[in-house]
Structures are given as C-alpha cells and as structure tokens.
Specification:
The structure is a homodimer. By secondary structure, chain A is α/β, with parallel strands linked by helices. Chain A is built from 13 helices and 8 strands. The first copy, chain A, has an 8-stranded mixed β-sheet, with helices on both faces. The longest helix of chain A has 15 residues. Chain A is globular and about 50 Å long. The complex binds adenosine-5'-triphosphate (2 copies) and magnesium ion (MG) (2 copies). One adenosine-5'-triphosphate sits at the interface of chains A and B.
Chain lengths: ~260, ~260
Amino acid sequence: MRVIALANQKGGVGKTTSAVNLAAGLAQLGHKSIVIDCDPQANASTALGFFESDISDPFMDTCYRLFSDSAKLEDVAIPTQFPGLSIVRGTKHLVGIEIELVSFEDRESRLRVSMNASSTDAEFVIIDTPPSLGLLTLNCLVAADEVIIPVQCEFLSLSGLARLLNIVRAVQKGDNPYLKVCGVLATMFDSRTKLSREVTNDLANHFPDLLFSTVVPRSVKMAEAPSYGLPIVEYAPSSAGAKAYMDLTREVLEK
Amino acid sequence: MRVIALANQKGGVGKTTSAVNLAAGLAQLGHKSIVIDCDPQANASTALGFFESDISDPFMDTCYRLFSDSAKLEDVAIPTQFPGLSIVRGTKHLVGIEIELVSFEDRESRLRVSMNASSTDAEFVIIDTPPSLGLLTLNCLVAADEVIIPVQCEFLSLSGLARLLNIVRAVQKGDNPYLKVCGVLATMFDSRTKLSREVTNDLANHFPDLLFSTVVPRSVKMAEAPSYGLPIVEYAPSSAGAKAYMDLTREVLEK
Ligand SMILES: Nc1ncnc2c1ncn2[C@@H]1O[C@H](COP(=O)(O)OP(=O)(O)OP(=O)(O)O)[C@@H](O)[C@H]1O
Ligand SMILES: Nc1ncnc2c1ncn2[C@@H]1O[C@H](COP(=O)(O)OP(=O)(O)OP(=O)(O)O)[C@@H](O)[C@H]1O
Ligand SMILES: [Mg+2]
Ligand SMILES: [Mg+2]
C-alpha cells in the first residue's frame, strides 16, 4: 500500500483537486484507492458528493476518529459511487484536533498509529491536507510514504515552496525517515500568460528531478466538477484537465 | 481608527491581495494605513517588497511580538516605499504561536491587548490572516472592528462561507461583540464563465446586504504585481484590477 499526502501550506493551489482526481484516476485504472480528507473544510468530501449535513456522528464516522481514538481505516472508510474508490470523510470538528493534540507526547504520529493498525486491501491511500503546517498536516506527513506538492503557476505560490521542503526534511530527520517527495505538480497553468511559463521554468530550474512532466492546465471544467460531486474523469472525460490527471496517475504508477 | 481583518479559511481566495490593495488604495486617498501580516506565509510582506531574509530578529521585528509580549503597533510597524502605508511584517515563526497560546487563559485576545495599548496615528489597520480558523485568525477577529470576507467566484469557495459566518457570530457573542461584517467581496470573477455568474448570483441571493457592489475581475496583472513587490495601483494603475480595488476602497470609506 502506498500512502501519498497532498501538501502545501499555500492556499488554493489544487491540493484537494489533485487528491480527488489522482485517487479517481487510480481507481479507474483498477487500483483500489481510499481518499482521507484531513482538512476541516472537508472539500475532498464535498468534491466527491458527500455533505457534512449527512453525517450522523462527525466524531465517529469521519477522519476525526483516526486522530482521537486510533480507529482503523476500515472503521471509517465508506464506498463512493465510483468503483474502487472509498473515502474517509472530513469534518469541521478537525479544527479541535489541532488544539486537543498539543498536550500529547505522540501528537504528530496519531494518524500513523491508526494507519498502521489498519488492514484494508486498498493499494493507494491519498490524503488531502489543510493549507497550513499545523498538527493536522504534520500528522499526515508522518503517516505518509510520499508527498505530492501542488504548486499553482503563480508567484506567491512559489515563495512558500522552500519552507515546505524544509518541513519535509525535518519530518524525514524526525518521525518519518521513509517520507519521499513523490513530485512537485504544476497546476492551473495558463498558456496565455508569461507568468505561468516563468513559474514552470523556475520550478524546472530549481527542482529538475522533482517536477512531474504532467502540467495541469487551468480550465473552468475543473472548477465546475466539484459542484456536481464528480471527479473530472467523470464530469468531463475528454477535457484537458481529465487528460492531465490521467497522465499524472500514470506517472505516479511508474515511480 | 478602523481595524479591518480579511478572513476566509478557504485558501487562495484573495485575502492577501485584497488586504494589500485595500491598504494601498486607502493610503493613496490620503488615509494613513498599516497592514498587519498575521499569516506565517508572510505573503502580504512579500507582496509589498519585504523578504523574510531581511529581518534581523523575526521574534522582535515582526507581528510575532504582538502575540508574544504585547508590543505596541508602533514598536513593530515600519514604513513602506508608498506614502501613508506602513507594515507589520509576518514571519514563519507565527506557526509556533498557535501552539504556544493554547495554554493561556487569554489565548484569543492577545492581539487585541497589543492593539489597545498602541497609540499610532493611522486611520486604518488592515489585517491579513492565514487560511484557517485557528488561534491566529481568532485573535485577528477578536482584535478587529470589522471583517471583509473575500470569496473566489468558484464553488468550493462558496461552501465554506456559512461556517465562517458562524465563527464570526460566535466571536460576536464571545470576546468581541463589536465585530461587524464590513462586506463579502467577490474575487477572481471571470466574465467568460457561467460558474462565476452562478456564484455571484448565489452570493447576491444569500447575502444581499453584505455583498460589495465592487466585483474584482480575474486578471493576470493582479497575479504579476506581487512578484514586483507592488500593489496593483502602482504596478498597473489603469488596469481593471486597480480600478476594482479603488472602487472597493471608496465603498469601504462610505460604510
Ligand atoms: N486546473 C484547474 N483549473 C481551474 N480551476 C482549478 C484547477 N484546479 C483547481 N481549480 C479550482 O481552484 C480552486 C482551488 O483549488 P483547490 O480547492 O483544489 O485547492 P486547495 O489547495 O485544495 O485549496 P485549500 O488551500 O483551500 O485547501 C477550486 O475552486 C478548484 O475548483
Ligand atoms: N483578481 C485576481 N486575478 C488574478 N489572480 C489573482 C487575483 N487576486 C489574487 N490573485 C492571485 O491568486 C492567488 C491567490 O491570491 P491570494 O494569495 O491573495 O489569496 P489568499 O486568500 O491570501 O491565499 P492564502 O489562503 O494562501 O492566504 C495569488 O497568486 C494571487 O496573486
Ligand atoms: Mg483543499
Ligand atoms: Mg494570503
């Protein structure tokens, strides 16, 4: 089982979009996958058609339990309408976890304990994280084998990358020596702007061996898909976004 | 003095861009303003030409001190190159504040204590917040008189709005009864897409008395400006983005 976290403290760079569409792509190619929504915004859950109002007990039926009482993945994962794809839903109550865990000795490895106790037959676990470097995201980096870093093709998104890679290195030296950077993914590339090309050139110069060759174009269909609760490969299978995420899926499978 | 926080836990919706350009617009119209960068990403500082590497002591010369030892604004505010506009720089070390404050009784009102002790002659203080509802953002909402909520014209950004307004109401019932919602600002509006129009219609239907009449269009010049350390009114004064932020500035002055 490969556990891959999507992380970047910069907001709005495509973490959720990449987590959902990579997991859907893997499932479509026959690799059973689970999405874990570790963001209190619960956008990955919304983007797959699940609403917080449908959850009878957010402390028991969601990702919250993986942090609070070391539940197993199979206790909280539920199937989606897409064959081979399951989800552990997020909840706004995850905000409380960041405060509750502070006093625990093992505050950064709670999620890993739950994951290690699990006996799911999924081949991939894809973890969506919030836009911060707090205890939720640290738990995800400690629990993961690999991290994919989406970077929007804009200046402000570039400026936080060095700091994120420092945090990844700190996690590798500390709780998770096995953590690898699976790759840096350029997102929302707009071929009409000089800015997009400058950013991708910068990424290629600074991180030549980390940058995925797949570049995800900016396309409104990508932004529309979550409102229908569908991954792009279902909402617009012949779109540029769907093709890019299938390319990314194949690149991840080859690593 | 009016203290206005820009807040939305959804990432990448234009909090920093709006904070910087509103403050620059106010300064240009002759209203002395200070930007406080309360985000560990320190993007507002970068967007005004300040780099974390230039700061000799990030614990003393930045926003960090407003939380750690109740410094006054005038102890940490420095002038920018734009007349009438000063800044309290952000720092990555703010991440530590979220953990350090947990055990304090007054953990949500540390910033307000500093602000109340200040004797600056600025007319406006504009606070940029991180994309979360943790202790940093709560401190900003408790310290502020008003909050502006930027909402990107996309579906995922809409889904978190109800929760944010609940938090604002909780702050109003608790530590800050005076907090008002100054307005909801539609950002990155793309007139070519149906999605943008649907989102602005939704906003107009659900929040008719909160929605600013100014709508900020998506424009690449807006995304380029921070890489030159310039607000849009300096970088591209005759662009649609500059016009929109001057319109917003006038609307805020009229409230
Ligand atoms: N390739 C794309 N083209 C156009 N829009 C996109 C693309 N990818 C994502 N989006 C849209 O951009 C917005 C930000 O993407 P997303 O929510 O996935 O980012 P995120 O990093 O998860 O944000 P957060 O930091 O809030 O968790 C969303 O409205 C999404 O629908
Ligand atoms: N009107 C606009 N048109 C085009 N791009 C924009 C516009 N406003 C902001 N941007 C760009 O969109 C990205 C997100 O904006 P910004 O960083 O201001 O959002 P934010 O809410 O502060 O993000 P975070 O949640 O990470 O703090 C940035 O790269 C910014 O330059
Ligand atoms: Mg997200
Ligand atoms: Mg910001």
